Amino acid sequence: MTERLSLSRQIAADLRQAILSGELPPRAILPSERELIEQYSTSKSTASKAISLLRSEGLVRTEFGRGTFVRDRPPLRRISAARRHAVHRSSGKPIFDVQAIDHGQVPSRRMLEVGRARVSPEAAAWLQIPQDQEVVIRKRLQMLDDIPAVISTSYYPLWVAENTRLESPDPLPEGPDEFIESLGHRFFRGIEVFQARMPTPGEAELLDLSPGVPIVRMWDVDYDRDGRTLQVAEDLYVGDRHEFAYEWSEGDIAR
């Protein structure tokens, strides 16, 4: 026998269905607690709990004095690395910027950290270096329409980055991919590894996340023809602001 939902969960389920079906579109205001109390003949605490459930799922946001609204979540589609390098080679711009502009959004970034340091065991393994070896680190917050979207941390071996603009605190207008190839290196193959998880408190604060919104961590590793790691990117994407696309052709699966 199916267990009957509590009234707060039933109210949340009704509102959730209205949101997912489009009956309540992005930026629409939800019924107030008073309206929910009257509609469901319930108490303030039950109505409040129903709204809290939706907020914890990242479906709505509450603005003090204004009400609760359906979150506006225009996704930025991130293409796979197979096409990423083709895009930066043809445009001369960072792939994040190209994709944002294609979606009618304005990209920007704020540098958080630039310097040399040791890295985590996982990053060191991708870089193919001893864990006690320093690398160049560039960490920045990337934004869409001034809203935080990605925390990007890139790691570069010294043989690639030493005494180059990768060690400068200034942004790279052309993007690191284009800059690395301008140094005479060439991306030959790569791997992307995705993991969805909940953010740490520090990540949630930096990305200005509502309760319940997950992040997607992506390791993006690029190698040259000799199998040497040119760069490792550890990107933390806001889960409900991105979608990930992988394209393939017959040539990719030909034996």
Task: Supply the key terms.
elongated; 33% helix; alpha+beta; 255 residues; two-stranded antiparallel ribbon; six-stranded antiparallel β-sheet
For the largest beta sheet, what order do the strands appear in spatially? 4-5-6-9-8-7
What is the approximate shape? Answer: elongated
Q: How can the largest sheet be summarized?
A: 6 strands, antiparallel
Helical fraction equals: 25-40%
List low-pLDDT spans: none
Q: Over all CA atoms, what is the radius of gyration?
A: 22 Å
Question: What structural class do the secondary elements suggest?
Answer: alpha+beta
Amino- and carboxy-terminal Cα gap? 52 Å
* Overall pLDDT metric: 88
What is the number of helical segments per DSSP (H or I, 4+ residues)?
A: 10
* H and E order: HHHEEEHHEHEEHHEHEEEH
- Strand segment tally: 10
**Percent in strands:** 25-35%
Your description of this structure?
By secondary structure, this protein is of the alpha+beta class. Helices cover 33% and strands 29% of the residues. The protein has 10 helices and 10 strands. It has helices at residues 7-21, 33-40, 44-56, 81-91, 95-102, 121-127, 158-161, 176-182, 201-206, 250-253; strands at residues 60-63, 67-70, 76-79, 107-117, 135-144, 147-156, 189-197, 215-223, 229-238, 242-245. It has a 6-stranded antiparallel beta sheet with strand order 4-5-6-9-8-7. Strands 1-2 form a two-stranded antiparallel ribbon. A two-stranded parallel sheet has the order 3-10. Strand 1 and strand 2 (67-70) form a beta hairpin. Helix 1 (7-21) crosses helix 3 (44-56) and helix 2 (33-40) packs across helix 3 (44-56). The longest helix has 15 residues, at 7-21. The protein is elongated and about 70 Å long. The N and C termini lie far apart (52 Å). The mean pLDDT is 88.
